[in-house]
Specification:
By secondary structure, the protein is α/β, with parallel strands linked by helices. It has seven helices and ten strands. The chain has a five-stranded parallel sheet with strand order 3-2-4-1-5, with helices on both faces. It has a five-stranded mixed sheet with strand order 6-7-10-8-9, covered by helices on one side.
Length: 247
């Protein structure tokens, strides 16, 4: 636990999809004000994408970067243990730094892609921090979403008037997708990955191929946007991919 005499702060900074120019001014200020920069990554042998985006505003002479490996466990017990360990790393680091200072204040910035509260790992981590480090003040800076950036790239309106929008991970079955497309004017499918061929087949059946836009790694050097999604029938889509369908 963080001693009451200390006052530690952590700000989760949504960095947007990948383009440093899409980081908000508030996000930049939070990064620059931090003493400790927590940079999540999915494997110990890979660099943090979030850290790469935030690099222009990090001063290595004044700030310490702490990599955090967040494995994608499907087992709930393993996932809970992993997030508890990460929460302990963040809480203990901030607590130790605050205890060394006359004012008892330490500031941290937790970097992440997209928005902290939309299909990210921070929601789970935030719950662990609240449960085990209740005196840690946690703030959130929202980030530009990947689908908003993709829509802006191609000039695709996500809604007009009273249009309804559905935002969700790619559905497991064709029937689910058919139902969504019948109920919403715009359907945004996140984390498309291996489900792309099935989605394309369903859109072809519904004559909606020309109404869809595929995007991956938006804002990053490897960014790719495809309007002719029929050409992707045999494509192995990466995890950071999405599809926007606009009826």
């Amino acid at each position: 636990m963080i001693p009451e005499r200390t006052h530690s702060q952590l700000v989760a900074v949504g960095l947007g999809p990948g383009d440093p120019e899409l980081v908000t001014m508030k996000g930049v200020r939070a990064i620059e004000a931090a003493d400790l920069i927590f940079a999540p990554r999915s494997r110990t042998d890979e660099a943090s994408r979030a850290l790469r985006i935030a690099q222009p505003w990090i001063n290595p002479q004044r700030q310490q970067v702490i990599p955090l490996t967040i494995p994608m466990h499907k087992d709930p017990a393993q996932a809970a243990a992993a997030y508890r360990s990460i929460a302990d790393e963040i809480g203990s680091r901030l607590s130790a730094l605050a205890a060394q200072r006359p004012q008892g204040v330490a500031r941290g910035a937790y970097l992440l892609l997209g928005d902290p509260l939309l299909y990210g790992t921070f929601t789970t981590l935030r719950a662990e921090l609240a449960a085990h480090y209740p005196s840690l003040v946690v703030g959130i800076v929202p980030g530009v979403t990947s689908f908003a950036a993709a829509a802006a790239q191609v000039g695709l309106p996500l809604s007009t008037g009273n249009d309804r929008i559905a935002i969700l991970p790619a559905p497991a079955t064709a029937n689910e997708l058919r139902t969504l497309l019948a109920q919403f004017e715009t359907v945004i499918l996140m984390k498309v990955g291996s489900k792309l061929p099935q989605i394309i087949a369903t859109l072809d059946e519904l004559h909606l191929l020309e109404n869809a836009v595929y995007a991956e790694h938006i804002g990053m050097p490897e960014e790719r946007i495809v309007r002719d999604i029929g050409s992707l029938r045999d494509y192995q889509a990466p995890y950071l991919s999405l599809l926007i369908v606009r009826r």
